[in-house]
Sequence to fold (223 residues):
Amino acid sequence: GAGVSQTPSNKVTEKGKYVELRCDPISGHTALYWYRQSLGQGPEFLIYFQGTGAADDSGLPNDRFFAVRPEGSVSTLKIQRTERGDSAVYLCASSSVKSEQFFGPGTRLTVL
Amino acid sequence: AQSVTQLGSHVSVSEGALVLLRCNYSSSVPPYLFWYVQYPNQGLQLLLKYTSAATLVKGINGFEAEFKKSETSFHLTKPSAHMSDAAEYFCAVSENNDMRFGAGTRLTVKP
Fold:
């Protein structure tokens, strides 16, 4: 597959539970981004990785949100003690140096 | 910090009519500007980008956008709308590596 993939495509969980969302970037892309898109809004920046390290995590809303990219490829966004307000589509994108960002199809998270 | 404002959350045009989607940006440095399209239940797809070369940028599917520094604008146009253009369109600005998106404009094309 040549594009960015995200799993699962849909995730339904209960308030207070822990969830993990996975992103597989385009092979060779060093930069990886996470965004959150709420209904009727544009994507909101969460965190940006350059290689294995988080270069900018200023968009993470609180300490319940955490993301890792241990080997500089696949990334996992982790949300603890989920709240109903966390319901959104979580988008992942990747890019190479100086290229535009290529987006995955997103994971739709619903917190009941 | 950079930001974008998209004027008009919904735009409706007739098939064959001009499409104009407005975007104004705020940036402290010369920005990179983008337009993305999002079809229902799909990811964002890049239409075009401005990276300080030509001010008139041509993209895919017949879309183009003009960077106007004096107006801090980057409006998206297409001379003749097609039914397949119905989608959500997002303007975005990037100063470093993070990208800030507008709220989006939903384009409806009437037969």
